[in-house]
Amino acid sequence: MENSPQYVIEMLHITKEFPGIKANDDITLQLRKGEIHALLGENGAGKSTLMSVLFGLYQPEEGEIRKNGQTVKINDPNDATALGIGMVHQHFQLVDVFTVLDNIILGAETTKMGFLQKKEARKKVQELSERYGLAVDLDAKVEDITVGMQQRVEILKMLYRDNEILIFDEPTAVLTPQEIDELLLIMKNLTREGKSILFISHKLNEIMSVADRVTVLRKGKYIGTVNTKDTNKQELSNMMVGRPVQLQVNKDEAHPGDVVLSVKNFTVPSHLHKKDAVHNVSFDVRAGEIVCIAGIDGNGQTEFIHGLTGLDKSSGGSITVCGHDISHYSIHHRGEYISHIPEDRHKHGLVLDFTLEQNLVLQRYKEPQFEKGGFIKRDAVRSYAQQLIEKFDVRSGQGPITVVRSMSGGNQQKAIIARELDRDKPLIVAVQPTRGLDVGAIEYIHSQLVAERDRGKAVLLVSLELDEVMSLSDRILVMYEGEIVGQLDPKKTTVSELGLYMSGAKRDNKGGDEA
């Protein structure tokens, strides 16, 4: 008999340190068989670090891990896999040019006499995908499928390896509302089949709807474990942030002024197929208002923003900011009018191997306050970085000299927002500004965007989070298949009506012109 059969995994008194920071400080987490156990905490609270310890990516300085009551040593992910532990990472670990099937069996191939037994592997994957409701096209290349589908591939990878303990690290950060509902259903199905799930998240709605228990971490320390049926969102957010949090956006009526951004008949070609990704889009954004482009991911929002900011070439129409036609300006030149919080913080927002202070002056290092005679004034850069770090509460192990790659995703996001809002441009383009952030950080960023609006900035928001769309925007434009199919007033519409426009079931032909 094991001494503690009630828990399939126990992490007891785990401590993990990095330079300048105790990421996990004496943390205990116990997972029961067949439960969904949520791990909740702010960005940088130590959730991903703790799971990386369980998955063998890091070795803890102190503490022990038990499986079914027996102490185990997990030196690397192969040990974790052998113990039946699998992990879906926040940034997927897939090979883009391989097919779905090849990605699933990669590293766990069935061979006979040195030959790959693809037929058997395919059969096993098909059975798994039917059993757990994970429909995927096994022959599609990963680069051609949606993010939601890529996630299913990651889950099938775990199931193919017969993993019993499944770790999901922020699994809904990149999904549409519909895909999130599907994923939560899949998670429930997995536990019905006897799997046990650790679910890292800071989305309180999701935790309340699927988790059995929640363990809360704050700044690397263990705060407590509660049953979801005995708690509520407000209590959880207090545990997580350590103070009461406003879960609703506080804002006064907008008082729109002059037109700042005017988009006319704007068209952007698609990289994937012959049809345009953005077709003949027209709308205005005025000073002192937040206009949100809502839509299901993959309906042209990304291409539109790339065309607007100069990351992609447009093929027709015009963009005017403050009366200047910028349609043919370079990215750098457009940057004189636009602050851009990009969708992909790693690709377009940060240079990951630069320090935090270098990232905070990326567009400004040539300004006289930071440069003299071709040399960067290091002291000026450092004190400027310190100010932004304090003002925006950007947390990192070594302050301005931290390498950005080592920071948590939420703090990377805060750094971009600090830099962009401080540039003080008439138009702020914010794409998924709170993706992957916790309630405390979301509250802060929403209040910053509202403050910018009230200072007379024009804010163009692109968001997939329906709560954010409804509570932050003054006007909503819905984009479907590259066109604006509706313009809604958030005070007069409902989430379900918004959903009908987003899915293309409903449209009005006014588009955005009647603004």
Question: Can you describe what's shown?
Answer:
31% of the residues lie in helices and 27% in strands. With 515 residues, it is α/β, with parallel strands linked by helices. The chain has three domains: 7-241, P-loop containing nucleotide triphosphate hydrolases (Rossmann fold); 254-337 and 426-515, P-loop containing nucleotide triphosphate hydrolases (Rossmann fold, 3-Layer(aba) Sandwich); 354-424, no CATH class. It has a six-stranded mixed beta sheet, sandwiched between helices. It has a six-stranded mixed beta sheet with strand order 18-21-22-15-23-24, with helices on both faces. A four-stranded antiparallel beta sheet has the order 2-1-4-5, covered by helices on one side. A hairpin with a 2-residue loop joins strand 19 (371-372) and strand 20 (375-376). The radius of gyration is 24 Å and the shape is globular. It starts with 6 loop residues before the first strand and ends in a 13-residue tail after the last helix. It is found in: Cell membrane. One of its GO terms (cellular component) is plasma membrane. Keywords: ATP-binding, Cell membrane, Membrane, Nucleotide-binding, Repeat, Translocase, Transport. It is a peripheral membrane protein.
